[in-house]
């Protein structure tokens, strides 16, 4: 049985492990802008490669549950990127974003020479949706570490279109903290039950 004095340090360690990839490495969506486009809406994602990461041929990122995607409207900043859409994934190993199989995911894969120049903007990636309203969804990426060239992956969140309303998905760190707190709640309930018996 875990003693209560150990719960706070264990929670802190668990949270650091679960959220470490988001804070330190991997591609990151720094802004999302929505423009009217006829009767639809163009969603523009500015993507940044952080200082401690490098981008190699085959690396990619995925935006999950992009509601109302209009086929053939994907745009990348240059010809070094290829686009795919799928109902599930692709997802790098060791990350677990929520992925609704009834909504399309958007992925861009890098097919160019290695980029290892410190923090740099990779440009704007765009796709059109039938919807303008926003909700939060997940963003994963596979890159490489600058220090040793090993594969790295991260998960964070970004905005995606939703048909009406603005439903917020909890951040990964919030979900991890809530999961880590559950054993402490159960332990407290058990002790209270034993004390009243």
Give structural notes.
The chain has 197 residues and is α+β, with helices and mostly antiparallel strands. It has one domain: Sandwich (Immunoglobulin-like), CATH 2.60.40. The chain is 23% helix and 36% strand. Strands 3, 4, 5, 6, 8 and 9 form a six-stranded antiparallel β-sheet that branches. Strands 1-2-7 form a three-stranded antiparallel β-sheet, with no helix packed on it. Helix 1 runs antiparallel to helix 2.
Q: Helicity range of the residues?
A: 10-25%
Specify the overall morphology: globular
Q: Compute the number of helices.
A: 2
Provide the CATH top-level class: Mainly Beta
Question: What is Rg?
Answer: 20 Å
List segments where confidence is low: pLDDT < 50 over at least 5 consecutive residues.
1-24, 175-182
Average predicted local confidence, pLDDT:
81
Question: What is the strand tally?
Answer: 9
The fraction of residues in strands falls at 35-45%
CATH topology: Immunoglobulin-like
Domain unit count? 1
Q: From the coordinates shown, what is the CATH architecture?
A: Sandwich
* End-to-end gap: 20 Å
Query: Quick one: biggest sheet?
Result: 6 strands, antiparallel
What is the H/E order?
HEEEEEEEEEH
């Amino acid at each position: 049985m875990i003693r209560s004095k150990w719960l706070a340090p264990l929670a802190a360690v668990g949270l650091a492990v679960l959220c470490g990839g988001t804070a330190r490495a991997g591609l990151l969506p720094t802004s999302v802008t929505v423009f009217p486009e006829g009767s639809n809406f163009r969603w523009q994602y500015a993507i940044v490669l952080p200082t401690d990461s490098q981008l190699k041929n085959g690396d990619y990122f995925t935006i999950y549950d992009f509601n109302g995607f209009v086929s053939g409207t994907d745009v990348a900043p240059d010809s070094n990127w290829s686009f795919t859409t799928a109902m599930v994934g692709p997802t790098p190993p060791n990350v677990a974003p929520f992925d609704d199989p009834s909504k399309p995911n958007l992925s861009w894969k890098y097919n160019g020479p290695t980029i290892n120049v410190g923090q740099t903007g990779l440009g704007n990636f765009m796709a059109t949706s039938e919807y303008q309203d926003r909700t939060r969804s997940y963003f994963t990426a596979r890159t490489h570490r600058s220090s040793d060239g090993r594969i790295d992956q991260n998960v964070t969140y970004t905005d995606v279109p939703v048909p009406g309303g603005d439903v917020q998905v909890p951040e990964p760190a919030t979900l991890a903290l809530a999961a880590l707190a559950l054993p402490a709640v159960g332990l407290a309930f058990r002790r209270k039950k034993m004390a009243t018996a």
